Amino acid sequence: MYSLLKWLMGAPAGLKLNNAFNKMLGNYFLYHVELWWLFLDMSGEKLDIVMHIYQYLGYLGFTFQAAIISDMMCLATFHCYCIYVYAARLFSLQISGLTALLRLFVGRKYNPLRGGIDSCEYTNQEMFVGTIAFTILLLLLPTTIMYYIVFTMFRVLSLSVQYVLAKVIYIIQSMPFYVMILWMTRSPKIAGDILIQEVECDSSILLKVKLVCNQSLGDLTEYFKPPVKAPKQFDWSNIISNVFTGKQII
């Protein structure tokens, strides 16, 4: 991450960015990376204890191991998430500012009371200040977009891996191993019908009751679903919409 930020502070892929603004953002993000390393250095002993505890929890099964990997990924990429939040917020502010200033050029403004767009007449001084502000935001936007795209990719990749791990945990927990064993052994616990037979007897009538397992494995797995909550679906349309509008991907 440190090397990546150093590369972005130069001329990445030959892009000509605003040098002063680029160095300011780069130094600001580098400061957070250094804070993260300082936190890891100060809490190294406690993290070792946590890792030892997680090591023993991994013996409880593959689902525990997958959950531990997901937690450790959230912890290891926390500084990346912080930088992504800053970049997304800055990108959203610039897009909102450019949108508001575009309305200024056509004699419009946003009315928060009505929640709509109203016509408005601006003075020459207001048009001059609006033009300068629009030019500044527009020229600074490529630098912001560069950082925003890079750390948005990190965020989407992290969420994708966490979703895959959650899906694997759900599949393993919802596998009907117990029902399959009962079905293979023809256990009376999953009997489908009751068979009543008359037993011949001189003095009285005797009835023999027998449980018959005649249900298919598909029906049994449908009836005996484990109480496991399915993970939240990965909504790509919502993610793409948030990327273009600068909203945070949670």
UniProtKB/TrEMBL annotation:
The chain crosses the membrane at residues 25-44, 56-78, 84-106, 127-151, 163-183. One of its GO terms (molecular function) is glycosyltransferase activity. It comes from the Eukaryota. It holds the Pfam family Gpi1. Keywords: Glycosyltransferase, Membrane, Transferase, Transmembrane, Transmembrane helix. This is Phosphatidylinositol N-acetylglucosaminyltransferase subunit Q isoform X2. It comes from Bicyclus anynana.
